[in-house]
Amino acid sequence: MDIKERIEKAKERLEAAKNTKTKAETQLEAAQEQCDKVVEEMKQLGVTPDTIEAEITRLSESVEENLIKNIPMTTTTRDGTYGFFYPSRAGKLWYCEGFKHLAD
Fold first, then answer.
1. For residue 82, what pLDDT is reported?
2. For the chain, how many helices (H) and strands (E)?
3. pTM of the prediction?
4. Mean per-residue pLDDT for 71-88?
5. Which of 18, 34, 73, 102 is at a distance of 20 to 30 A from 2, taking alpha carbons?
6. Residues 13-25 pLDDT 10s
7. Each residue of 68-78: b (16+ CB within 10 Å) or e?
8. What pLDDT does 86 receive?
9. Residue ranges of E strands in 1-104
10. Is the Cβ–Cβ distance between 84 and 73 less than 8 Å?
């Protein structure tokens, strides 16, 4: 390979590198715009990138707590039917009885 061919190959590689750089810069700009939009939406919801993990933890714990509070507790009555307690919105337990279990 003579010097002219080596220079031409180097020019081709340089041009390819420039094209790759331009594509990467365009993708970076699009990603930054998307990130800015997400951060703005987060602000509207009252969280920031710094507080999002704590908010996720808080919401997860709240969901678990509410699920536990609202799961009915079943019991068997004297006549073999089933009944269950379930919480009311006022925090009291309501009782329902007299239904047969489908497997019986």
1. 60
2. 2, 3
3. 0.51
4. 59
5. 18
6. 999 999 999 999 9
7. eeeeeeeeeee
8. 58
9. 73-76, 82-87, 93-99
10. yes
Residue 104 confidence (pLDDT): 40
d(Cα 31, Cα 83) in Å, to the nearest integer? 56
Tokens standing for 64?
A: 């678990």
Contacts with 1 (C-beta within 8 Å, 6 or more apart), sequence order: 9
Amino acid making up residue 65? E
Report the alpha-carbon distance of residue 89 to residue 104 in Å, rounded: 32
| Structure token digits, residue 71 | 């799961």
What are 95's strand-pairing partners?
Answer: 85
pLDDT digits (tens, 9 = 90+) for 3-51: 999 999 999 999 999 999 999 999 999 999 999 999 999 999 899 999 9
Closest of 85, 82, 81, 83 to residue 72, by C-alpha:
85
Burial class (CB in 10 A: 0-12, 13-18, 19+), 58: exposed
